[in-house]
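Lab notes, practical 5.
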Amino acid sequence: MKCLELMTYADKKVKTNIDIEKLSEIDFIEIEVVSGDEIARVRYIDGRTFKLDSIILDDDFRLMSFYDGSYYLYDSKNNINHIDEFEKRKSSYDMEKFMWEEE
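Output from the prediction step:
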């Protein structure tokens, strides 16, 4: 199983329980960046929806909540898949070019 990893403001990657090798089961993955922390909203084809916050997964807390932007990491209906590039990022801001692309 290859798990989706989210990044905190301190550029620390934290694992989720989302298996990105089973994209055929996923409708979309949206990434929101808040004060540098990545938050994933994942909806499966069967309707189950999960929200995963990197700072909570890292057992930490956010001092402030500044909305930096959001983008679709994966969207089965709109043929969007940025997972390869997402896995190579060094910072939560490395994906900034996609934040307004699909609006």
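Observations recorded by the TA: The chain has one domain: 3-92. The chain has a mean pLDDT of 93.
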